[in-house]
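Please supply some protein, with fold tokens.
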Amino acid sequence: MSRTAFSNTIKAMNTDVCAVIVCDDEVSAKHEFEKIREEIIALENRFSRFKEYSELSKLNESAGGFFQASNEMIELLLRAKKSYEMTFGIFNPAILPVLKKIGYDKTFDKIKEKKMR
């Protein structure tokens, strides 16, 4: 049986996320895509600043106070810090106050809706 590449794209965190799976049949690919979709949605729900109850939103709300972060959040923050250091500050995830000040306090879709009114 020959292996085939299957691809699927979903929208998450306001971008297109494309997965490519090489497997024997389309049924297996669909099953794997569903697992990938569920994981991406779980990550978005947990780490998006636009999800009111996400861990990231709760972290941002606690700025200056105590926050009990999950191991995954700690790992994400450590990777972000390393990226900040490796890019000499070009990558900077700590710019939320600036983003809010310039109007990026909602998703791109909501910003577009507001401009179209």
